[in-house]
Amino acid sequence: MDAYDCIVVGLGGHGSSTLAQLAKRKLKVLGIERFSGTHQNGSSHGRSRIIRQAYFEDPKYVPLLARSFELWRDLQSEVESIEVSNEKLLTMTGGIMIGYPESTVISGTLKSVRTHNLPHEILSASEIRSRYPVFQVDDREIGIYETEAGYLIPELCIESYYKIAKLNNATLHFEEIVTDYEIFSEDLVKVTTNKGTYLTKKLVLSVGAWAPEMFGKKIENILQLDCSRRVLFWFEPNDKNDVFMNIPIYIWDLINEGNFYGFPTQPGNPGGNKVAYHFMNKDISDKCTPETVNKEVSQSEIDSMRKLLDKRMPNLNGKLVATSTCMYTNTPDQHFLLDFLPDSNGNIILASPCSGHGFKFCSVVGEILSDLVQNSFTSHDISFFRLQRQSETRVLIEGGGDMPAQAGELFYQWATVTVKGVEHRNIVVIPWASEQTNEECMNNFKLWGSHLFNEETSSLVCAPNQLQMVTDIKYVKLFIKQLLNATAIFFHGGDQVKIIEVLIKWPGLRELIQSRYQSGLPFAGTSAGAAIMSVTMITGEGDFEVIEPDKVETKFGLGFVSNAIIDQHFVKRKRTNRLLSVLMYSNRNEPYGIGIDEDMAISLINGRKAKVLGGPNGKVLLFERQDKCEFKLKVLGSGDEFELIRDQ
What are the pLDDT digits (tens) for 258-300? Predict the structure, then answer.
């Protein structure tokens, strides 16, 4: 049986985008959809979806939205080169967010526009009434208007992706239901449907409201998924229809009553103006599954929406033209899920860009998932979409020389996981900074905890070396598999710049390493492997005889320690000058500098709570900023504890 490069299960917005983009990359791909093409059984229908850039949900979405707009416009051009259409995938209308200043929608939107310096207007209640008289706002409510907003037609978008996929030789199977999937070998996944069995190198599960059923139980101890029902309404205005044709898309935060959204008059069926609750009062919300969802809209639900319109948009409260229902797939924090299924060797990818605000991202999510399929990483920041959002972070930073015995013991303790009552360690040594062979790097690591290393319960592997990592993607993919399966990571010493060269070559690696750290994977590093732990990393180049700006070279490190600059071999190599030079003139104005001597280490929990580990004579020097050129110095010995409580 020939294997596909990738099978995409679920061909709604995100699945169809992923299939088309993989096909354009010349991969052999199969898309499987349980229904017949575009349908009204999930979350990708309803004739309109808002797209906006001033994103109240979180400023981190804004760069993804900028790329999403680019890709939607590219898709429109691509479709127009194939056939003539009277309808546009994307219609720009501008957008207005309305609410009280303290509301989630307003405060969140302002945070995004200020973080990313987005063009916008802040409108008072009287200005809203003057410009858009259809909105009956309270005197204390305000509006935030942006031009970079509008709506997408989801059905047309999906059909366009189908066309692109087929033109690029993708195979599409409709009315076929996946009944099972499992790891077939180290590099293959077996997918079973009601019509056949397939092998694939990668599997993307983009199944919308079927996610809790298809993979929810496999991740329930990490992240909970559930589905809820929403009702969509189309009303004809009572009068002044032309006014409603020219209003912007809108989201209105009613605080305790939830928030609702709507659109200008849209050409074509069903006519009228669409309006719906996003998060709402208890009358128009209920948990469901695809099997139990009630697709009938009750009179009480219609009455509830009419009551809202009568108060807020009375001229829209005319004839009810149509209703429909859809489903939200929700995470507890309302952010997306884009990550590898645990214990799948990175071969099964979970995609739930959900919680009722995902369709606008279909174009960029397709790009992200295609990156994950092809390379196992992406240059887009998806750290906040990972399966494990935030766990206790642990990092051990060693100053060079011999690792202190208690530091080695602590690292082995951190690396230990218990599966079915059996302890196990899977430690990955990263040799990128070193000139030594991989075997020598692993032997060095074993020396630091030789009495703890048991080959029956411990697995020690070395990542590909630096030259392999910067010259061949196959070694990057191998490293990512090691990273995903590791219980702890150790960075060997050498030249820290060589580590950064790998991260510069493959930008998505930095995000993936950071996300594994944030999810609780313990890290350790010695010498160069210690230097990279802070955001501002001292490279080792420069003039260390003076304390002056621009005399010490720095680069962007891994950022595990956000509020301190790390220096190593500190006392023995007399590095006070270079650490002070960087501290005094750093653009980030970090409040702390930490000088770790040889044969000494610090453990750091959650980026705050630190403990010094080492021999009786070694020292760690802690510099705490008082002013630009004034620092408080603490000389710490083994067993001393301190906290990095200040942010920059």
Answer: 899 999 999 888 989 999 999 865 555 588 999 999 999 999 9
Beta bridge partner(s), residue 524: 396, 490
The tokens describing 376, both together, are: 């196992």
CA–CA separation, 201 and 183 (whole Å): 10
**Cα(442)–Cα(461) distance, integer angstroms:** 8
Report the candidate in 21, 444, 461 with the shortest Cα–Cα distance to residue 204: 21
Separation of alpha carbons 577 and 646, rounded Å: 23
Residue 323: beta bridge partners? Answer: 233
Question: Residue range 61-87: average pLDDT?
Answer: 93
3-state secondary structure 280-310: ECHHHCEEECCCCCCCCCCHHHHHHHHHHHH
- pLDDT, one tens digit per residue, over 570-614 is 999 999 999 999 998 888 889 999 999 999 999 999 999 999 999
Report d(CA 263, CA 273) in Å as an integer. 6
Domains of the chain: 1-44+60-70+153-223+333-389 (3.50.50.60), 95-147+226-330 (3.30.9.10), 394-643 (3.40.50.880)
pTM of the model: 0.88
Q: Which residues contact 551 (CB under 8 A, 6 or more apart)?
A: 542, 543, 544, 578, 581
